[in-house]
Amino acid sequence: MARPGGARRGVLGPGGPFGPRGIAAAFALSGVVHLVRPGVFVPLVPRSLPAPRALVLVSGAAELLCAAGLLRRARWAADASTALLLAVWPGNVVMALDAGSGRHPGPADSRLVAWVRVPLQPLLIRAARR
Question: What residue numbers bound the domain in which 57 lies?
């Protein structure tokens, strides 16, 4: 539902969990984990790409940068967040294809969790662009 001035309420609105602030919070949390525990994400990097640990660290730094931009509503943040979400999408597909193999510890090895994550990417992109 639209508020006066055109602001949207609800989960997809700017202040909702799937609005820019919610995506910024997710980016911030994930970015910190990427930098503190990169080994969690290394198995998700497609095997055809070089230097998986370096790619994880770069993506963690990019997530923190996008989080800051989304919170500040910087003009570049929506485009940067979209590019980042598209860049890491292959990792989500790898996680889904490997699910159940034991390659990814914990919830990442769940087929349900992994396959639900793949189609969420367009929703996250849409939310970052609000």
Answer: 20-128
